[in-house]
Write the structure tokens for this entry.
Amino acid sequence: MREREGRGWCQVVVGCQWGDEGKGKVVDVLAGDVDIVARYQGGANAGHTVRVREREFILHQIPSGILHPAKRCLLGNGLVLDPLQFFEEYDTLRARGIEVEGRVGVSWRAHLLLPYHRLLDRAAEDRAAEKIGTTGRGIGPAYEEKVGRRGIRVVDAADPERFSALLEAGAARARRRLAAMGSTGACGLDGETGRCLELRERLVALGTDTGREVVDHLSRGRRVLLEGAQGTALDIDHGTYPFVTSSNTTAAGAATGIGIGPTRLDSVLGVVKAYTTRVGNGPFPTEFGPAMDERVRTLGNEFGATTGRPRRCGWFDAVIVRYAGRVNGLTGLAVTKLDVLDTLSELRLATRYRLPEGETAEFPPDTLSLEAAEPVYETLPGWERPTSAARRLSDLPAAARRYLERIEELVGAPVEMVSVGSRRGEVIRLA
Ligand code: GDP
């Protein structure tokens, strides 16, 4: 990561497919070089899996920078923070010997995701004629309340009486909505929602102005990493609507979701898997047939970190990643899980789509076109050799280098990092 004299450096790390690109691993590698790691959107549905030596950590809300000693980790205003899950994660990290005290800050402006949001999420998904395939963690309903101006924020927890009254009112509202949906979920203050009251003081103790912290650090010449969850195709505006998450996952959302201006962002690193995966429903043009799907799912251990759901797998889709390059303003690429392709004799890359009205190299805005899209493939030879020990580009077989070069050409952004295994050290850094 370069540094601009006297101005610090602010880098965004953004997923460029349907999420699960391995952002957790990439952030973990980069976090060693920065002072702050901050998350800017999403909730507890985004499980990042990070392996440090032989220990595996699954982080849902706390940035993976927490696994590096002394880094400050922030959760921005763009998140919907689930206090129960958050403190469970916080306490688990502490119990596993990670020093968390004084290192985690939560934006006063972040909205709270409360137990009744989970009940609403499940009830709505159960009733939906067309399922979004949500994780049922309450993310959508929490963002609905935020945008509907009924949300409860971290700052609201500062006053115990007001907080209690807001929770009571929120739970009552949820009960009415649940009843209208024919659901009988209990969400009074005597249950899980009440536990949020017990966590009030701990939550308030972590309150901060995340934008201000980031700007202060940058003006002192320090480095900051802003970390997104999910991926570009799941962005509420730019993704495959309605099969999307409820926030802006793309790079511009990093500025809004932390509380800084877009002119503060210096670089945007797009994380892409060397193939494609997707969890949940919705169109997926390069999806494998059943045999290949099973093979790559097993090789890549493609099961959701939070839900255990099997991920759908497919070939690398340059159409979507090129689109991600544009909407995120990518300055570089991190290609992950290259090693998963080690045993394949040939590889395909989708360069464009064939639609009923002709060929296109553009990612279509409507889901129906995407459903109709037939990928046009280019085939490259596989390398059929292990790559996990590679630490320099020249350690990789020529066919693997060619594959990466072709991705660079098709996407129009330079590869700055290649991940060749799940462990921290299994990486090739080019920038
Ligand atoms: P994220 O949410 O984008 O961080 O992605 P996940 O954590 O859900 O999924 C990434 C998974 O791939 C995790 O289990 C990682 O340990 C693993 N992983 C990351 N990079 C690599 C890699 O280069 N090779 C292999 N084999 N696994 C990787």
About this structure: The mean pLDDT is 93.
